[in-house]
Amino acid sequence: MSDFYKKILENNKKWVEEKLAIDKDFFKDLAKGQNPPLLWIGCSDSRVPANEIIGAAPGEVFVHRNIANMVIHSDMNMLSVLDYAVNALKIKHIIVCGHYGCGGVKAAMGNESIGIIDNWIRHIKDIYRYHQTYLDSIIDEKERFNKFVEINVKEQVYDLAKTSIVQAAWKSGQELSIHGWVYGLNSGYVTDLDVNIDSNEKLDNVYQLKF
Ligand SMILES: [Zn+2]
């Protein structure tokens, strides 16, 4: 077995001991149930660990991660997580957190075929096309990449608001806000993009569902 593999098993034992030293009922209490106020939709990138960067303890964040933090309205995995978070856990906030330097977003800007992931990245390419005039006007490639990361997050925030799950929750008067963040790999800080949606009124008319 590799040293890394052995190390992570040992780390787990140490972690349990540390938690129990502070609170002997830590795991006993967690086992009773969860009531997290937040759903996190982030990138699978190993450098953006949801709980760690916001100082959240076990039980505080319900997490969904995929390549480039996408909200694809036909993705059963995402929809199941969203439905459970909104309708069973009654979470109050959803944060879509992208990050600068995202490999998925970078790949979407290029033309190289990487394999089956091309079909996932297609969704990000569509977003480039929606904003092509603006993005193509940014001469500096790094700057264009950064802006594309931000635009992608904003689009995913709106895509969440377009889902029947979120709109039905708003219709029933449930408190639910959706936010967009971008994490800086080289600073550790998140930037709040200030797209805060708590009703379907900001959506284009064609997406507004009547119940
Ligand atoms: Zn990423």
UniProtKB/TrEMBL annotation:
Cited Pfam families: Pro_CA (PF00484)
Enzyme class: lyase
GO molecular-function term, one example from the UniProt record: zinc ion binding
Example GO BP: carbon utilization
NCBIfam families with a match to the protein in the record: PRK10437.1 (NF007756)
Taxonomic source organism: Flavobacterium limnosediminis JC2902
Cofactor(s) needed: Zn(2+)
Record-given protein name: Carbonic anhydrase 2
Record keyword Coiled coil present: no
Database matches in Gene3D superfamilies: Carbonic anhydrase
Keywords on record: Lyase, Metal-binding, Zinc
Family that this chain belongs to: Belongs to the beta-class carbonic anhydrase family.
Cofactor note: Binds 1 zinc ion per subunit.
Binding locations of Zn(2+): C43, D45, H99, C102
EC number(s) reported in the record: 4.2.1.1
Catalytic function, reaction form: hydrogencarbonate + H(+) = CO2 + H2O
Alphabetical list of SUPFAM superfamilies matching this protein: beta-carbonic anhydrase, cab
